Amino acid sequence: MRVYSFRFGCVLAAACFVSLTWIKSMPSDEEVQPHLQTLYERLVVAEELGWQVSRDLSNILEQLRNISKPANITSNITSTANTTTMTTTLLATIRESRLGSGQQAFLQPNIYIYMPHLRQHPDSLKPNVVLGQGRRGVSIVMGIPTVKRENKSYLVSTLGSLLYSLTSSQRQDLLIIVFVAETDSDYVGSVSETIRRNYPNEVQSGLVEVVSPSQYYYPDFTSLKETFGDSKDRVKWRTKQNLDFSFLMLYAQDKGTYYVQLEDDIVAKAGYYNDMKTYTTHEASKQWLYLEFSQLGFIGKMFRTSDLPMVVEFFLMFHRDKPVDWLLDHILWVKVCNPEKDAKHCNEQKALLKQRYKPSLFQHVGLHSSLPGKLQQLKDKDFGKQALYQAHSNPAAKVSSSLKHYQQHSLDRAYKGVDFFWALTPIKNDYILFKFLQPIRISGYLFRSGNIETSGDRLHNTTVEVLSSNAAARDKLKQDLSPESNNSFIIIGAFENGVAEGEIAEELQPISELRLVVHSDADVWALLSEILIKV
Ligand SMILES: *[C@@H]1O[C@H](CO)[C@@H](O)[C@H](O)[C@H]1NC(C)=O
Ligand SMILES: *[C@@H]1O[C@H](CO)[C@@H](O)[C@H](O)[C@H]1NC(C)=O
Ligand SMILES: *[C@@H]1O[C@H](CO)[C@@H](O)[C@H](O)[C@H]1NC(C)=O
Ligand SMILES: *[C@@H]1O[C@H](CO)[C@@H](O)[C@H](O)[C@H]1NC(C)=O
Ligand SMILES: *[C@@H]1O[C@H](CO)[C@@H](O)[C@H](O)[C@H]1NC(C)=O
Ligand SMILES: *[C@@H]1O[C@H](CO)[C@@H](O)[C@H](O)[C@H]1NC(C)=O
Ligand SMILES: *[C@@H]1O[C@H](CO)[C@@H](O)[C@H](O)[C@H]1NC(C)=O
């Protein structure tokens, strides 16, 4: 800065010198000597002016710094006198600031222009990371905004559906951010506790994060203008949604390569991760702004994280004016539509900036919108049907259960491979029994509970037991009998993470009955999506 100011002063002084010399040299060459003194005096004045200008510039810079507080500004100005560049560079070099507790507040320089109230508190842009291990550098970041709902929450099953079909390598290359867009810390705490209880491993590994905004983030919503015939509540709801999406995107922006926005009441298609990744690789060189993996609202919209600051800036600029899906469309309009051409031309141009993937990978399941009282029975017609069970042809058996099945999802149909079995909440000692028509040799078994749409309805604390028709084997294995088994059944396996899989030892053959026994009261229903008895 000093060097630059000095240079600037010199340039200014030299300019004065040249112009003065030129004026003075006009009348007569002989009068040069007496004028030198005056010239020198003027030069001193000019130099003083130069310093004055430089001091003013310093002052402006300092003001800029103060304006951008609470950002920690790293000014990186090496260019010559170009104040436009200077301001831009200054703002561009503002990135993140480290605040007290070590948590980072992200910075969107102009956010203070659109939301001046943020300047009143240094923590207003500091995300409250309730659960998270700081995971970064993944291929895909998925953001799920959620708000307090008066009616049923689907958040846990939405997460279950997203996690259900992931392989272990996919789990390492993904980040799922649940953004609880509420400032009530008790509520935020209860959501994060629910998630931690249901998905302890995913939270532990950093795959699932729970984040909420600072209590100073939201403006006073009472002074909003009602537009487009929307009621006051609706204007508040859509304005807050703009701010919620913006906060979430800013938080997600530096955590991976692509960002996908979802909602808290959806189901995913099995294998969605691979489908998204393959399509993204395929489309990587094209000029899209977003890819659509669902045709509904903001569900399944994928952005490059490098585009998020621009998208967020646009949302923030007009957050009071329009709903977020209109704003997203307007970005495309602004970018490529020519006002002198017709709507057809505009639509063609916009279509180049968004590529739609079919079939849709996410389906909306919620009935109630987050706007109280609004019903939202939207369904994505391109989602199609997906397999909710895996059929196998099993040996003939008489099946029975102490569990009461729901609707048509009976054990009999599941065993035949035409449905899944879905039963009301099991209690201790409930069982599912397969009685073979005659003793047979069974090499192994596989039972999978839950499915991609109802991944939470798993069997817990449930054992797999067989009744051997080989009397010698029963006597030999007597010491292995657990107290829960009665004298005839032998425990050969148990459900772990919703799946029971194993082989059956040769000395137990042939088998006359096989059963699943629940050992403690469950708090969810039970769903069996795969029954395989290998003969
Ligand atoms: C900038 O802030 C500092 C301390 O906060 C203050 O001393 C200084 O006067 C401010 N400068 C201007 C130009 O407002
Ligand atoms: C700004 O951040 C840098 C590096 O993060 C740190 O060294 C410096 O002390 C910070 N300055 C202020 C004023 O916080
Ligand atoms: C300053 O900017 C130049 C060019 O824009 C860059 O090469 C350099 O790394 C920057 N320095 C800092 C400290 O950010
Ligand atoms: C200032 O810098 C910008 C960006 O580098 C450039 O486009 C513009 O022409 C410069 N203006 C002047 C007067 O040099
Ligand atoms: C909650 O669900 C009930 C029954 O479907 C409905 O009558 C009520 O309006 C819903 N409440 C909200 C806030 O949507
Ligand atoms: C052992 O279990 C089978 C199958 O549930 C049942 O029929 C039988 O009565 C049980 N025996 C005893 C002694 O509890
Ligand atoms: C499984 O059930 C047994 C018997 O009711 C109980 O003692 C045990 O704590 C249960 N285990 C789990 C993990 O719930």
Named at the architecture level, the CATH assignment of the largest domain is Alpha-Beta Complex
Strand content: 15-25%
Named CATH topology of the largest domain = Spore Coat Polysaccharide Biosynthesis Protein SpsA, Chain A
Helix content: 25-40%
How many beta-strand elements? 21
Number of domains: 3
The global form is elongated
Which cofactor or ligand species appear?
2-acetamido-2-deoxy-beta-D-glucopyranose
Spatial arrangement of strands, main beta sheet:
3-6-5-4-7-10-9-11
CATH homology group of the largest domain: Spore Coat Polysaccharide Biosynthesis Protein SpsA, Chain A
Look at the structure and give the mean pLDDT: 83
User: How many separate helices?
Assistant: 15
What's the gyration radius in Å? Answer: 34 Å
CATH class label of the largest domain? Alpha Beta
What does this structure look like?
There is one protein chain. This protein has 535 residues and is of the alpha+beta class. The chain is 35% helix and 21% strand. The chain contains 15 helices and 21 strands. Strands 3-6-5-4-7-10-9-11 form an 8-stranded mixed sheet, sandwiched between helices. Strands 13-15-20-17-18 form a 5-stranded antiparallel sheet. Helix 1 runs antiparallel to helix 2, helix 9 (232-252) packs antiparallel against helix 11 and helix 12 (324-336) crosses helix 13. The protein starts with a helix and ends with a strand. Residues 72, 98 line the site of one 2-acetamido-2-deoxy-beta-D-glucopyranose.
